[in-house]
Structure prediction request, 465 residues.
Amino acid sequence: MADVKRVCCIGAGYVGGPTCAIIASKCPDITVTVVDLSQARINEWNSDKLPIFEPGLDDLVKQCRGKNLFFSTEIEKGIKEADLIFISVNTPTKNYGIGKGRAADLKYIESAARKIAEVAVSSKIVVEKSTVPVKAAESIAHILQANHRRGVHYQVLSNPEFLAEGTAVKDLMYPDRVLIGGELSEEGNRAIMALSNIYQHWVPKDNIITMNTWSSELSKLTANAFLAQRISSINAISAVCEATGADVSEVAHAIGTDSRIGPKFLQASVGFGGSCFQKDVLNLVYLCECLNLPDVAVYWQTVIEMNEFQKRRFARRVIEALFNTVTNKRIAIFGFAFKKDTGDTRESPSIYICKYLMDEQAKLAIYDPKVDHEQMISDLTHPSISDNPTRVQELVTLTKDPYEAARSAHAIVICTEWDEFKDYDYQKIYDSMLKPAFIFDGRMILDHKQLQKIGYHVETIGKRL
Ligand code: NAD
Ligand code: UGA
Prediction:
């Protein structure tokens, strides 16, 4: 099995698509097929407008598609032909039954495993790439072995993904490390080597870490929990800064120069978003509860609670500064994606800021350079955000022009750190706004002194201006 010639990836999402594009581009000797249940998604991968926006991804896909990179809904064929199969399906937080709101929903993982067992006629290495609770690989192996055909053998590996959206191509090209967990046996080692050989086409061997499957699975949840915890920690300090006159950027700089702490992920903000931090921390919380470790569960739960607090706190500051009423006031929202350089809005803090302002009957004019308007409406009319979709349509205006969004507005609220927001003509914007004109910089990206000189009332995170 050391010589993998055909790879199949089940799940053509934010992880499966970019990961396979890199493998195809770095391993011309390997044929990579990405399969998905969604015909619409596969059509987009095969079109000029890919289903996800990632800097550098278009070129990469164009370079390999149709040569050794294929996107298809022929799941069974993909599985049958492959030596190695990545499972890269979604593992959202469960919204029903036992563990509702906390546990990871593993139904997509299980159905992928069952599909492999059903159709495979030759031995396979099955690689769990999705983020899962500890012992999920064991369940996959169990399903495969209980249903295997004669002569068909499986090895199940854990190979969690650490890419971040917006920098996926760079992260995949130059990963800090690749993590592979496997069974501690001769066959397990052979499978680990086979996967490692793929990565060694472009990743230095020393950056490929191997370990037992459970450590690998737990390392992924732990990495995300630590990253989310850093943001919640600095956001907690931002509240102290606002109350005391300290400046959170200065505090972050001061602590970040300690080599034991380091400078990254200390950017205070409106709160973290994205499809994974909240889901994976909750996943860890649930795991701890199931392991009868309630104190550990409570410890990690506070990371989520601090994030909720930060989003609410920021929205409340906007309302307070606008003389405690935003009813019928036009407020321009700059940024709807959960971070810059992505069109992804999953768990975006912007959605929650909009919700809190809509609850107070503010009229929102929303602009984002990459998010589709249908997506914004779908997020804002989701039952967890609003129970009155008609009211949302009345309160929200979507625009493709930031200047238009700000015209006749009382305030601008920056929710995403898009670079282009720094380059606007804020004098022109000021002239078109109602006075006093407010800017709430939830990402600390603007030149506050300059804005004040123009005449804006400026508020930001973690600092009194
Ligand atoms: P996604 O929702 O973008 O994509 C998942 C895809 O899997 C969907 O297109 C869905 O149609 C498909 N799918 C589901 N069940 C299927 C099945 N049985 N057969 C075929 N296709 C199926 O999800 P994503 O963001 O790519 O995340 C995938 C996994 O990777 C998750 O576990 C996530 O936690 C993890 N992860 C995500 C990121 C990220 O940046 N998004 C980073 C690291 C890890
Ligand atoms: C995160 C991790 O960084 C990846 O390593 C991991 O693979 C991925 O989750 C996953 O498992 O899905 P991602 O969510 O794409 O990646 O993006 P991040 O850069 O981590 O940002 C997450 C959120 O935190 C964003 O809303 C961002 O604006 C916010 N953030 C980030 C801050 O508020 N402050 C910071 O200092 C850093």
Remarks:
- DSSP finds 18 helices and 14 strands in the chain.
- The longest strand covers residues 6-10.
